[in-house]
Give the backbone structure.
Amino acid sequence: MQMPFPENRFSVVFCNHVLEHVADDRQAMREIYRVLKPGGWAILQVPFFRLDLEVTYEDARLTSPAERFRAFGQEDHVRMYGRDYAQRLASVGFRVMEDDFALQLPEGFRQKHGLPRQEYIYLCKK
């Protein structure tokens, strides 16, 4: 949530399945945006356990691993992202493209290469 890098430092940032572990994900998103150069881009992936979840669910009162597992699908997650994820990214300044490329691949290919069945690619541009 506080990167030790100057503004406009990186052309590319890749953040894969991290934000669901971070207490203040919007602050982390702002930091990623801050360290990207103008015209830079980021891939910011998060897991989706429920494609029908419209709004991201988070509850800071849930602190035990068992509570978090029941609520968020994994004991070290602090939220479960919903379909509003792209809007959350856009709220910090990103232009967001949601791509379902991996979902178009044959199931056997996805399994062979460990690609999740229900995960979009989020390309975020500054």
Residues 10-125 form a domain with the Rossmann fold fold (CATH 3.40.50.150). The beta strands are 10-16, 36-45, 57-58, 79-80, 95-99, 121-125. Residues 90 and 96 are 6 Å apart (CA to CA).
